[in-house]
Design goal:
single chain; mainly alpha; two-stranded antiparallel sheet; 20 helices; about 0% strand; membrane; Xanthine permease; transmembrane helix; NCS2; transmembrane
């Protein structure tokens, strides 16, 4: 998971705590922005559409998401882990939201506040050392694989995109062709071009879609004229607490995965840039992540996490300065107050979003498989059961028809109907109980 080759600090143009000149700092910040914006838009649009049918409410949701990402990024750079590490909405929390679509929004974001609170305590009180023992490499690998596989129903619905006026088979053909081009291009790109591939693919894919299919068939999320240029979003907070015990338990499993993601991202970048006092950085970083998830719960948006996409950008620009992310945070903050800009950025066809999410999840699968390959006896039958059974079981649960999950007891539905939670429980039982090494 952390297999990042170390680079000597002298090879960087600017070190971790060095400040580039203003002009260069702004250029570096724009490069980070080009990577962050597509991730916010792609994940944010999926969650916003699952909550609200009103385009204005969806844009308001994205405004809050840009705001929380900007605030977390700025705090992390100056007071948190203090590493050149981008942040954004956590894909693992997307699983918790989409798998529990039958629950109220208030209940979901109450669970987000509770999960963020426990994460804050873990970072601030030293629980981190105790939690690490639950996640040996095989468990981490399974969690990474489960994130990808249990998102497949959501990805499938985005690709098929019923109700857009274009037949599902045509959408599927478009997605397959788009994915083939995307993979082919990614094999030959290097450095910054490879790191920013998602934004170019998002723009090019949307343009081709509009050219191939009738613009009238595309959901433009409302008229641009109806969207204000500037607007605040400091209203409609999620302050109506709603406690659903089973839903909270379901979300706590997703926060265990978020913790692993956060930890791995900080360790990989820290080792790459030669950061010192990593234990203190990780504790501060996890604490800030937890606090920002609490804020996200109050605002009613998906919580943020530190992303592991940064090493490629650092290697290509030869700039390890954390201060290059300050302009990114400021620009994200400004964008959050301009709904018209977000509306323009958000006019991406669902099939393009689904295909890009599928491509992004390929990296998740590759990381999980690499961890398994690097483990002891990777081809043993024990590994086959410990890895294969939870992934298959979680995938089956994720594809259960709503009519089946509706038959589960209401109290247990958020747990038994969530493929990710079932998979995580299964791998923990297999790893620590059934296949536990004696002695």
């Amino acid at each position: 998971m952390l297999g990042v080759s170390l680079l000597d600090k002298p090879s960087y143009r600017y070190g971790l705590d060095e400040r580039p000149p203003l002009g260069e700092n702004l250029i570096f910040g724009l490069q980070w922005l080009a990577i962050t914006v597509p991730l916010i838009i792609i994940l944010g649009k999926i969650v916003a559409a699952s909550h609200f049918a009103d385009p204005a409410a969806q844009i308001l949701y994205l405004q809050k998401l840009f705001f929380t990402t900007a605030v977390m990024l700025l705090i992390q750079v100056y007071r948190g882990h203090r590493l050149p590490l981008i942040t954004g909405p956590a894909s693992v929390l997307l699983i918790g939201i989409t798998a529990n679509a039958g629950s109220s929004i208030d209940a979901m974001y109450t669970a987000t506040i509770i999960g963020g609170g426990l994460l804050t305590l873990a970072g601030a009180t030293g629980w981190l050392d105790h939690l690490k023992g639950l996640f040996p490499p095989r468990v981490v690998a399974v969690i990474l694989l489960l994130i990808a596989f249990t998102l497949l129903p959501t990805i499938m619905n985005l690709i098929i995109a019923p109700g857009t006026g274009v037949s599902p088979p045509l959408h599927l053909l478009f997605s397959l062709a788009f994915l083939a081009v995307l993979v082919s291009i990614s094999r030959v790109l290097t450095g910054l071009w490879k790191s920013t591939l998602i934004i170019w693919a998002m723009l090019a894919g949307s343009l081709v879609y509009f050219l191939v299919f009738s613009p009238a068939a595309v959901d433009m999320s409302g008229s641009a004229g109806a969207v204000p240029t500037f607007a605040s979003f400091f209203h409609e907070f999620t302050l109506h607490f709603s406690l659903e015990p089973a839903l909270i338990v379901s979300f706590l499993f997703t926060y265990l995965a978020l913790f692993i993601n956060d930890l791995g991202s900080m360790q990989s970048v820290g080792s790459m840039v030669g950061a010192t006092e990593m234990q203190a950085r990780i504790s501060r970083g996890v604490t800030v992540t937890g606090l920002m998830n609490i804020l996200s719960g109050f605002l009613g948006v998906i919580g943020p996490v530190n992303f592991s996409l940064s090493p490629g950008v650092i290697a290509s620009t030869r700039c390890a300065s954390r201060f290059t992310l300050a302009p990114t945070a400021i620009l994200l903050f400004l964008i959050s107050f301009f709904p018209a800009v977000i509306h323009w950025l958000g006019n991406i066809p669902p099939v393009v979003i689904g295909t890009l999410l599928l491509y992004i999840m390929c990296a998740q699968v590759a990381t999980g498989l690499r961890i398994i390959y690097e483990s002891e006896n990777p081809l043993s039958m024990d590994n086959g059961y410990i890895v294969g059974l939870p992934v298959l079981l979680g995938t089956v649960i994720s594809f259960l028809p709503p009519a089946v999950t509706a038959g589960f007891p209401a109290m247990w539905r958020p747990i038994l109907g969530n493929g990710f939670v079932v998979g995580v429980v299964a791998v923990l039982l297999l790893e620590h109980v059934l296949f536990r090494k004696k002695g």
